[in-house]
Amino acid sequence: MRILFLNQYFPPDSAPTGILLHELGEWLQAQGHEVDYVSSAQDYRNVKKNSRRLLREASALCGMLFKGLKTRRPDVVFSASSPPCLLVVATLIAAWHRAKSVHWLMDMYPELAVALGEVKAGFVSGVTGKLMGWGYRRAKLVVGLDEDMALRLKNYGVEAEIIPPWVLQSFIASAPMAPIEPAPEWTWIYSGNLGRAHEWETLLQAQALVEKRGLPIRLLFQGGGPSWPLAKARAAELGLRQCDWNGYVREAELQASLLRARALVITQKPEAQGLLWPSKLALASTLPRPILWIGPVDGAIARQISALPHAGVFAPGSAEQVADWLQKLHQVGTPRLEGRDAATGRQTLIEKWGRLLAGE
Q1: 183, 206, 207, 227: which is closest to 321 by C-alpha?
Q2: What is the predicted pLDDT for the residue at 290?
Q3: How far apart are CA 172 and CA 270, in angstroms?
Q4: Could you report the per-residue pLDDT of 70-116, keeping only the tens digit for each?
Q5: 194, 263 in Cβ contact below 8 A?
Q6: Residue 39 in contact with residue 7, Cβ under 8 Å?
Q7: 212 vs 168: CA distance, rounded Å
Q8: β-bridge partners, 293
Q9: Sign of the CA dihedral 140, 143, 147, 149?
């Protein structure tokens, strides 16, 4: 079987989605399949600084369509979600080559853009939704990231399989050889991109309450993102004294930086439920640290995190309850948890993809 992977970025670019697909492609090649890749030839880190997003993504789609039509004939055209409407391009390429279309839905557009206020509901979003629905229904296989996303896809008349992202091989390889104890200073950490879909006000309000109670607990934001300046300004407005802001760490140092904290924070705005999945959850859920979730409390992610030891699951706005959870965790001491096997989980999910692509 020959498989053509379509995504805006692929290695050596650092975009996580491209790395996921490339790892799947490498595994398929090891099973005897042929694999080709088509990307936008853009640079993930540099284009994020470019404000002309619409032009950039339109250019990427046109370029990928041209390259996909010219490539050798595949049996399967496998697309992810970046750039938005890539599924439409993939469907055209699959029709041209008389191939099957397979789609791994990572971010659901146009719904996500409308929910976050980036695009107004109207003619453009309506047409885009109809085009995406056409692509979903033409696909031989559509895979979502959790049950909430699968439920959203039912609105298009599509029954989706569910495969979440796995921990990247590079993170598994860079895992500390010896256990890392938390730093002496009690810290809870939000690490990674602080995007428009991520809740942060509740974190700051909870930290304000913690400081008001005189507790020696620090909140650390590690990373960056479009909401970073707003959150940092809000922290100053609240007068937080125990809130730190560090940039992204190198990939090889990420796990160690998380393990030095006492609790790992993952958030999502309720309006984004079922429209994306926080990729940081894949790694965090394998580490021996309590996870604090602030987001929809009735969804698939909340259920997954609730099943983990010493987890905290709270709705946005529940600052006092979050502060109580942090205070209790601080008082009882860091629980001794067992890490979960990221390598086995990765292999299981990749093999599930293999079975689905083989039609089993």
Answers
A1: 206
A2: 95
A3: 31
A4: 999 999 999 999 899 999 999 999 999 999 999 999 999 999 999 99
A5: no
A6: yes
A7: 40
A8: 266, 313
A9: negative
